[in-house]
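Sanity check

After download, print the first record. It should look like this:
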Amino acid sequence: MAWKTMDVQEQRVRFVVEATQKARTFRALCAAYEISRPTGYLWLKRYRELGVAGIAEQSRKPHGSPWQTGTELERRVVEVREIYPDWGARKLQVVLARAGVDLPRNTIHRILLRHGMVRSAERYPPAVQRFERGQPNELWQMDFKGPPKGWPQPAGPLSVLDDHSRYLITLAANGSTQGAPVQSSLEEAFQRCGVPDAMLMDHGVPWWSMSSAWGRTHLSRWLMRQGIRLCWSGIRHP
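Expected structure tokens:
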């Protein structure tokens, strides 16, 4: 991204450092980092036992898969797929059931995935609904784009998009991610298009600050004073 964002491990390192300094109560510290106290104690425990490596994101993959389909059933699924290479899991389910192999469609699909027998176009079901707001100005999406090749400025352009119409409201070459140029661009956009009901953003500057108790910055507080409801995407999910 064009700006500095805090990844999960950096957030945890800062947390345990502040926790060991005891500058504020543990309850207040957990609230500032928007985590529960049991989670905070878990990070501290891992840090004391294993150091910085102990508070890295742990794999949630189970050590075993007791419910994984047996080898013989997998072999039957693969054999049928080889006979009907253009058929998906739904049709294969019918053929297998006729042979006495009763497997859910999702299980058949996972078996095909494990054996590399699913083409990329078959991996995900087609979207049947557009998840968009019902009217213009119900939600704007704001983000800094990564600088394209040959871009003459250190920061990429600021983009503001209307969620309903997909109309590009703002595409501004501000030259930086400072809050003042962003506010100036938004003021001009509000005059042209009106003020939105809500805005969706990620956890990048200038609209989010990890040093603030609730992540608020001067820009985000200014947006709230305009009556705009702020929505935040997941961390590291722009």
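If your output differs, re-run the checksum step. Summary of this record's structure: The beta strands are 140-144, 158-162, 168-172, 198-201, 229-232.
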